[in-house]
Amino acid sequence: MVHGAFHEMWGPFRLGFRWAPPMIDGLWAAGVDLHDLTLERVRREVTVAFWGDLVRPGPRPVDEVLAELSGDDGTGLVGLSAQFESDGPAALNNVAKALAAETNRRSTELLGRYFTDPDMRTRIHERLERHLGPDTRVVVAHSMGTVIAYQVLCAHPELEIRQLITLGSPLGTPGLVLDQLDPPPVDGKGTWPSCVDQWTNVAAEGDLATMAVPALAPVFGERLQDEYVFNGRHPHDIEPYLTAAETGAALAAGLELLRRD
Q: How far apart are the C-alpha atoms of 6 and 257, rounded to whole Å?
């Protein structure tokens, strides 16, 4: 499994323990017989390619943080608090917009660093490459992790991956992502990773990371199977993606727990 952005404060073991239960729930939702599948077995056979520590920022100067909180333009915490006192609940929209804008800014900034810093990109790719081998059958990637997984798999044709599962993927976004990939797209069409047999892409209603291009088959080829799901109030979170029957069916097919037509 390959995580996305904003996991700097976690680690591979914490994520492994966190994601194993929803992964099993996805298999259950897909109709897999779980009588011999235990949480311990999943934790033993599933590894997390963790790279968050490579981009964990250091603390900023206190004066800089205080200035940001003050926000002379009214967008800081102090300004938003004052607006809430004067406008009441109506100000919550501005708070939500400010949080969404900050999240989008940080995501774009991290993607920019990844694509423009070869050393950083190499170190991140090495974190996934150390987990890939002749026994690897399924790669599950989320968000920015789908960009990492795609490029690494394209670079390793010797692997035999039965199923690539991309969740909340921005891979099809032109300009920001698609046009920065290696190998680069040709006439707007991406390259199929030659080591991958099946590729299932799952996008969720309301997931901002996928809204530009929710379906990847038109970009990467009709062999790719697109699925569209509902993830509730947190459409980009990985847990509801993992519990979806569509994700479970793709995982089961890759592990040959279920046959897929």
A: 32
Q: How far is CA 73 from the centre of its chain?
A: 33
Q: What is the pLDDT of residue 179?
A: 95
Alpha helices in 46-203 (DSSP H): 62-70, 77-87, 92-116, 118-129, 144-154
Torsion of CA 209, 215, 220, 221, to 10 degrees: 170
Running DSSP on this structure, what letter comes out for residue 56? P
Residue 61 has pLDDT above 70, yes or no: yes
* pLDDT over threshold 90, residue 218: yes
Exposure of 28 by Cβ count < 10 A (0-12 exposed, 13-18 middle, 19+ buried)?
A: middle
Alpha-helical segments (H) within the chain: 12-29, 39-45, 62-70, 77-87, 92-116, 118-129, 144-154, 217-220, 238-243, 245-254
Given pLDDT bands bounded at 50, 70 and 90, which one contains residue 258? Answer: low
| More confidently predicted of 94 and 201 | 201
Residues 162 and 137: their CA atoms lie apart, in Å, by 5
Distance between CA 193 and CA 150 in Å, rounded?
Answer: 7
Residue type, 76: G
> Which residues are CB-contacts of 203 (< 8 A; sequence separation ≥ 6)?
168, 169, 210, 214, 215, 226, 227, 228, 229
Q: Which two tokens stand for residue 249?
A: 């069916």
Structure token pair of residue 18: 């966190």
